Amino acid sequence: MTVKKMMAIALMGLAVSGCASVETATRNAPLAAVDIAPVELTYNVQDIRVSVPKSLKVSEANRYYPGGDIVWREDPLGDRHAQVKAIVENALRKGVETMKPGLVPVILDVEVTRFHALSEKTRYTIGGVHAIQFNMVLRNPETGVALGEPHFVKADFKGLGGQAAIAAEARGVTQKYRITQRLAQVIQAELSGEGGYQATNLGLIGALNQL
Predict the structure, then answer these.
(1) Is the confidence at residue 32, as pLDDT, over 60?
(2) What are the domain boundaries of the chain?
(3) pLDDT tens digit string along 59-117?
(4) DSSP string spanning 65-92?
C-alpha cells in the first residue's frame, strides 16, 4: 500500500480535518555528508519502535560474502541484534526529527528483516552492497490499530571498498555514518513521498545480497 493510501486511511480513521502540504522526496539522491535537510511531514510521529528478531542469523565470517541476515563489524563483538536495533532506531529518529510535524499522530513500527553491511575482507578490497531492509507500519497511538498493511522497504546502497573506504574513514565517514544518513533519507521519502523510497538497481552484487 502506498503512503498516499495510508494517509487517506489515517485521515478518515482519526477524523482529522484540514490538510498538510506534501513534498515529493528526491529518489536516489546522492548521499550528502551533511545533516539531513528539513522536509514537510504529513504525519506527527510520536514514537518509533524498532525490532530486530532473534531469528535473524548473525554471521561473523570474514569472507567476501559471509552469508547470514546480519553482518556488522564496526561495533565491538557482542549482541549484534541490539547493535543493529540502536543504529536503525537512531537513523530513523534523525530522519523524522528534521521534518516538520504534520496533523496525523502515528507510531512508526519497524521490523528489520536484513542488515548486511560489509565484512572486513570486502570492505578493504572490492567493496560491496549495504543490504538494509525492513517492514514498516504506521499505527494509531491510542488504539494501536495499523493504518494499512506492513510495507516492505529495501534501502540497499553501494558500500565503499579499498582505498575509497580507507579515505572515507580518515574523514570520519564510517559504514555506520553512511548507513545512518541513508536510512534517515529513506524514512523521509517513505513518510513524505507519494511513492516511497525506490532503491537503486545494484545489479548482480545487489541480487546476491538477497540470497
Answers:
(1) no
(2) 3-14+37-208
(3) 999 999 899 999 999 999 999 999 999 999 999 999 999 888 888 999 999 999 999 99
(4) S--SSEE--SSPSS-HHHHHHHHHHHHH
Q: Given the C-alpha cell 542469523, which residue does it identify?
A: 57
Q: State the Cα–Cα distance between residues 211 and 208, nearest whole angstrom.
A: 6
What counts of helices (H) and strands (E) characterise the chain? 6, 8
- Estimate the crossing angle of helix 175-192 against helix 3-14, to 10 degrees: 60
* Chain mean position to CA 44: 18
Sign of the C-alpha dihedral, residues 84, 87, 90, 92? negative
At 179, phi and psi to the nearest 5?
-65, -40
Largest CA distance in the chain: 55
DSSP of 90-121, one letter per residue? HHHHHHHHTEE--SEEEEEEEEEEEEE---HH
CA 144 – CA 138 distance, rounded (Å): 9
Fold observed for domain 3-14+37-208: Rossmann fold (3.40.50)
CB count within 10 Å of CB 82 equals 11
For residues 170 and 31, the model is more confident at 170
Q: What is the 3-state secondary structure (H, E, C) of 11-44?
A: HHHHCCCCCCCCCCCCCCCCCCCCCCCCEECCEE
